[in-house]
Amino acid sequence: MVLGLSATRIPRYNDGAIQTRQQCTGGTVKFNLQIWQILLLPALTALLLALPAGAQTPEPLTTIFGDAAAEFSVPRDLLGALGYTRSHLRSQVSELNEFGVMQLPPQQVAAAAALLGAPVDAVRFDTRQNVRGAAALLRQTADRLYPAQSALSTEQWFVVTAAFSFPGNPTQGREHARQVFGVLADGLTAQAGGETVTIAPWPEARPLAAQPIVRIASDDYAPAHWVAAHDSNFSAASRTADDIDMIVIHTTEANYSAVLDHFTRPERWASAHYVIRSADGDVSQMVRDSDVAWHAGHWQTNLRSIGIEHEAFVDDASWYTDEMYRASVKLVRHLAQKYAIPLDRQHIIGHVDVPGCPFTGGGASCHTDPGPHWDWDYFFRLLQAETPTPT
Fold it and tell me: Considering only CA atoms, which of 390, 112, 130, 349 is closest in space to residue 247?
């Protein structure tokens, strides 16, 4: 295939770096089980017994949200909706280095630690400090935007949420705020680590969640809107149907808004053609079909494929919604017909199936997505349920 690629646009390491990775070490260390038990188990037992009770039983999120809201005079339900939108209320580290239940990026972690007078690692990994950090930053943003106002209206909290979410990207900040306020408008009851967390409905949030946003339509796929990846994150090309014969299914390992923001920033060395949101199946196109996105961690696969990211964390089944499956199916069927791609597992693959890892699949970084909660059987049943309408 001759794609007319510019050599300067090809990075030394073409890897869509937003999926779960597994270690690709070659050596193994074997332990004698009896020796391990004799030497380590007594010490581990003593250590566990010495831990305070609070270290063994996680503190309820409901308490943490309530305390942080009271301390910094921010709405408790807004904190909860932010946490749910970003992490489904699970403390984890995203592939974009966002931390905790509130998925704070490094710059916000540092700013929150300074406001709290707490260690940076506490804001990263301790749920109470992570939520307190987000609340402190929300309060700081509110005070900057609305000085001398302690009580804000729902509309003002929307503006604060947008500014807090993506300080350098107002468009993505507003889009993220719309999603957060959509959760607030409906309310929510969610399970988090065996705890039930309830977010009370805010009916007054509904108009804010539903407010229109000016979007650019995708030229390649009508239901998608266009959010251009930075041109340092993909290779310009002129691919046609003769060049494309594969679709790669990914999961983002980060929230939807953060991924869109990430791909639009310069020199992130990663991109995908399409990104699909979990909650409602919203589709953004970020790289034209004819161009080469850097998503697979394997250059030959990048050259011949289209990459689709799905908003999810591979170890959390709650992200794999029917809305996301159905949006993905519509997109894949469109692409399959447009480029004559067979609807089978040899041509529609997961990132885990990409060559490049020395010991398994998953490209150069041994990625494992879309993971065990992606239901391939259901996906293909939907794919083959109807004959696609001719394009």
Answer: 349
Residue 96 C-alpha from the chain's centroid: 8
Tokens 């209320």 -> residue? 89
pLDDT in tens, 301-341: 999 999 999 999 999 999 999 999 999 999 999 999 999 99
Give the CB-side neighbour count of residue 232, counting CA atoms within 13 A. Answer: 7
Strands (DSSP E) contained in 149-282 are 188-192, 195-199, 216-217, 225-226, 234-235, 246-251, 274-276
Give me the residue label for tokens 């990994």.
125
Q: Are strands 246-251 and 305-310 parallel, antiparallel or unpaired?
A: parallel
Task: Retrieve residue 264's tokens.
Answer: 């639009």
Tell me if residue 192 falls in helix, strand or coil.
strand
Distance CA 43, CA 39 (A): 8
Distances (CA, A) of 334 to 247, 312, 383, 390: 11, 22, 10, 9
CA-closest candidate to residue 192, choices 63, 48, 33, 7 = 63
Supply the angle between the helices 170-186 and 76-87 in degrees, to the nearest 10: 110
**How far is Cα 217 from Cα 115, in angstroms, rounded to an integer?**
41
Amino acid identity, position 92: Q
Q: Tell me the C-alpha distance between 374 and 178, whole Å.
A: 27
Give the tens place of pLDDT for each residue, 351-370. Answer: 999 999 987 889 998 999 99
pTM: 0.85
Give 272-335 as a DSSP string. Answer: -SEEE-TTT--EEE-S-TTSEE--SS-HHHHHHEEEEEES--TT-GGG--HHHHHHHHHHHHHH
